[in-house]
Amino acid sequence: MEKSNQKGLAGKLEKKRKRQIEESTKQDGLDASSTVAPANSTNGLNKKKRKKAKNSSNQPGQDVKMQDRKDGIDESIGKMDGRLLSDYFAQRAQKLNKELSAVELNDISVSDSAFFDTTSFTESRTLERLPEFLKKFCSKGTDLSKSSEQKGTPHTLIITAAGLRAADIVRSLRSFQNKDSIVGKLFAKHIKLDEAKQFLQRAQMGIGVGTPSRVSDLIESGDLKLNELQRVVIDGSHIDQKQRGIFDMKDTHFPLLKLLTRPDLRERYGAGRTGMQILMF
Asked: Which residues touch 201 (CB under 8 Å, ≥6 apart)?
């Protein structure tokens, strides 16, 4: 009987020992998995960071462009000389119309010699600085407040993307306006084409401010005359609330190119006493 009890007790102790070993093994497995999990989690985070860094490095040009565009001004435009501007105009045309042929692109290309280098104007190109900008790049003795005796014959045209912006530009140039020389509104915002024609037929205008399409229409009608035009100023640095400038929209960039490459203007770029040039504001 005593031997039987001893065997039973030994069996119970053996079973208890096995259970302890099994439980210890399970706990070791849990500890190991908990140690590996953070490493896997860390690896996942590192992969996400690397992917994000890679995506950022793929778009350096966009980051630089966004840095240049602030407070309604694209600072990069004012840093371009004639050669860069000529290339930039062509690049924008190709981006906005990928079906342009080489011949078509050549027809609307503006020569680098057509541009007057304004990169020396290092001030921010805000409207408050526009009068100063115009004076800086006029020849000595030029009076921007004077106009031709011939009606509708400006010495300066300022081209911008939209009517509201054009109205703001007109207000910024009041210092050049007097009873004998008006700063003309050559844009479609609240002004019908016939009204604009009638204005040009009776007004002596030194400076005209307008959008590319409306200015072209007035030239074609014969009411806006170019025979005494000395400079075309492009409001190129301005960007709207949607971060768009005159070169970023198909309905403004192509009319602008069409205007600048008119034969009666193209043949006069830099042509001595009767020559004219494009200034980039």
From this structure: 151, 152, 223
